[in-house]
Amino acid sequence: MLIPNAPLFIGFFLWFARLGATVFVLLQQVILIDIAYNWNEDWVEKSNECDRLSYGSGQKWLRAIVSACVGLYSLAIIGISLLYRHFQGCPENIWVITLTLLGILAMTGIQLSGHEGSLLTSGVMSLYAAYLAFSIVSKNPNGACNPRLGHDDSWGIAIGLALTFLSLAWTGWSWSAEQRLNVQGVQAPTTMSPASTTPYADTINLDVPFLDPDEQPTSGIVTEQNTADPNFGTDLWKLNVVLALISCWVA
User: What is the C-alpha to C-alpha distance for residues 41 and 37, in angstroms, rounded to an integer?
Assistant: First the structure.
């Protein structure tokens, strides 16, 4: 074409894309951990809300968490078993699969030993680790231990694109949600001294807050009209960095 591949694209950009793709894989794991923790906290909060309304009614959300954990771990174990069955014959493949299995066990043990552990997060990461192990062994150039050598990896491409879209969507939503949920500018009701409202201290009802009628809110809290964050838009570089890393991953 107009610009030759060498030396810019074959040399510099090739290694730059590999480095960016590696960083994106690490960033994707952080994003998946964040998604899983928020998923777990959301269902636990829904369980607590149901229990506040009717004690015991929140168990359905806890059962859903347990069911999701069982399903995720089951898929991960089935995936590891299939890898052992179809990608054996090479020591490098066995090492990758075994290290993945040991990593899953270690990650689960760490989650169970902590007070803030989440098996749902471990289940998500276990399934993701099994996917990464499949991606590695399926790229082995030795046909003796890679039955998928020379075949189109349509499933791997579809899963990779789905994870990429999920990472991008969660990054954009998290950034916008942080801006929407910013409580900067919230003002509290103004309190007044009890002596200024009535001269009789023994008739004061301490359960009623002393608020100026002109400043007393009708409902909820009072927020300022101009609460725009002056730094709004300056953090767009985070989303742009993720987009750049995704381009390296796709390349």
Answer: 6
